Amino acid sequence: MAEEQRGDAIETFQAAGQTFPPAATTTAAANAQAEIYARAAADPVAYWAAEARERLTWRKPFTKTLEWELPFARWFDDGELNVAENCVDRHVAAGRGEKVAFHWIGEPGDRRTITYAELLVEVQRTANALKGLGVTRGDRV
In 3-state terms, what secondary structure has residue 54? Predict the structure, then answer.
């Protein structure tokens, strides 16, 4: 049986013209600033390079922001960072250890609030367990 074709079907993802505007309540609560949006729209690659340099801790700074060959994009390809350091360690080091990192809700209704300090302990515990299994620096897990 032949598949029915629709006139409004997306032919390619890169050329889709659909938009999905946010809800009015989301827009009202957003921290969107016209100047930041204009800068990002004018030069997206330069914008994201500046954001990445300012907001992330790099072990080896990147020199290439974006390599784009459809359908693949490689951002900050020659840079190196430690995800755990950026997501957990730096918050504790900056004195935000008692702030909530995330709220967890499981089943059947289990709940737990995890602070950055608690998360750091769990990350370190996991790292030590991996070391105990023979995983070393540079191994991909």
Answer: helix
